[in-house]
Amino acid sequence: MSLQESFVVEEGHSEPKFRQVSKHIESLVKEKVLKPGARLPSEKDLASQFGITAVTVSRGLHELVRKGLLVRKVGSGTYVSRGFSFNNGHDTPKIGLLCHYPPEGDWYASSVANMVHTALEKHKFDMISVVARKADYLRVAENNKLSGLIVVAPLLDFRPQLEKVLKENYPFIIIGSIFPGLEDHCYSIDDMDAGKQAVEYLHKIGHRNIGMVTGPVNDSASQDRLKGFQEGMWEAQLATNPAWTIGFEPEKAIDPKNLVEKIKEVLRPATRPTALFAVGYNQALAIYKAAKSLELSIPNDISVLGFDDPVSAEHLSPPLTTFCQPIDTIVENAMEAFMERICSKDSQNIKEAFHAKLIERESCATIK
Predict the structure, then answer these.
(1) Residue 153's Cα: distance from chain center in Å?
(2) If you count Cβ atoms within 10 Å of the first and of the last residue's Cβ in the chain, which end, N or C, has fewer?
(3) Which helix (H) or strand (E) holds 340?
(4) DSSP letter assigned to residue 246
(5) Residues forming beta bridges with residue 276, ordered by sequence position
(6) Alpha carbons 357 and 355: distance in angstroms, whole number
(7) pLDDT digits (tens, 9 = 90+) for 232-268
(8) Which pLDDT does position 245 carry in this prediction?
């Protein structure tokens, strides 16, 4: 495939040679001579066509990669991005933020969405928010002409989709979940460690009868916290009562009435747990509602240890003792690595180990 046609790299031109090359290729994309997904000739072949060095070609291509017009795939070559668009003469690469539920109803997802939007604005990228309970990730990217995908807390059901995106070498990151085999793309806290921390804290303040309100069975973060909780109970030599592990099926995950009723069933008997660990903030709120309905006092009758720390957590009655995730640090680290992938640079980003921090307030009583 020849990209030269009537184009000639001019000596003594007002613009350097690499920029002449980048502008020529950009014009071919704009005029749809080069279509989205098209593979460019190798840098060596382009250098031969244009009569310049491969180093100059590489510099010109890198400028277009940085703008989002081209994508470099390791071991495969350089391609025209499927997600680049020309808007009134201005190039505006678009990034998709994909959630499986509306972020407005989830404090964690909405916090991540706001921080991602701020980061993309800084890099002059547009953001498209996509809510898709069932979605083909690559089709979403192609239909919306995206240059990359940021997936927030994907459910376990979507692992095949993530593997397909990885196989296509498409730029993506996952925030809020860790999938084995995809760790290099995942940015989240150590959820198993958080589950163990919960048991350690409650055990330290005297609790021996501890239950847990879990999340959907197809939510990786919730399930990892449950595994950590179970491991922590085993290490503390505490019996785990299956009846005190309150869970629900995926289709009922957003039914607060159903969850409150299940919690009430556990709290009614005199032999109820002395403490409940909530895997998320909504679960903690459900415990508060159940306790109020049964006229039980928090923390005198039941201690509540939550997860996530929105502003309202410290204004509950009583203020919620909870784990706080370093969301700002996680998103900052994730976006730095993501922008390097979008620009097809070798990532210099060193992944940190993120851990939740316990915020002690008034919802957990000490048992002497």
Answers:
(1) 5
(2) C
(3) helix 327-342
(4) E
(5) 211, 304
(6) 7
(7) 999 999 999 999 999 866 554 457 778 999 999 999 9
(8) 95
